[in-house]
Amino acid sequence: MNEETFNMELRKFLKKVGVTSQREIETAVRGAIDGGKLTGSETLKAKVVLSVEGLDLNQEITGDISLG
């Protein structure tokens, strides 16, 4: 395995995950506020499930997102 290639590819993937996740969450929150489902002062529980095909990897990552 080429460590440099692996590291760069992993960083690209994680950047894509981060950017896409942030955009989708922001869009969903704004839509929920506009639609009256949220007031904008809630704390939301979030969960991401990470899996990699070909590996025995299934990891849940949880956290809270405060809207203020």
Protein described:
The chain is α+β, with helices and mostly antiparallel strands and 68 residues long. The protein has one domain (3-66). 47% of the residues lie in helices and 26% in strands. The chain is built from 1 helix and 2 strands; from the N terminus they run H-E-E. The protein has one helix at 3-34, and strands spanning 43-51, 58-66. It has a two-stranded antiparallel sheet with strand order 1-2. The termini are far apart.
Average residue pLDDT: 98
* Contiguous uncertain segments of 5+ residues: none
Terminal residue distance: 45 Å
- Radius of gyration, in angstroms, nearest whole number: 16 Å
What percent strand? 25-35%
Please estimate the helix content.
40-55%
Principal-axis shape: elongated
User: What number of domains?
Assistant: 1
Number of strands: 2
* Helical segment count: 1
Structural class, from secondary structure content? alpha+beta
Strand order of the main beta sheet, please?
1-2
Please trace the helix and strand order, writing H or E for each element: HEE
Major sheet description: 2 strands, antiparallel
The quaternary structure here is: single chain
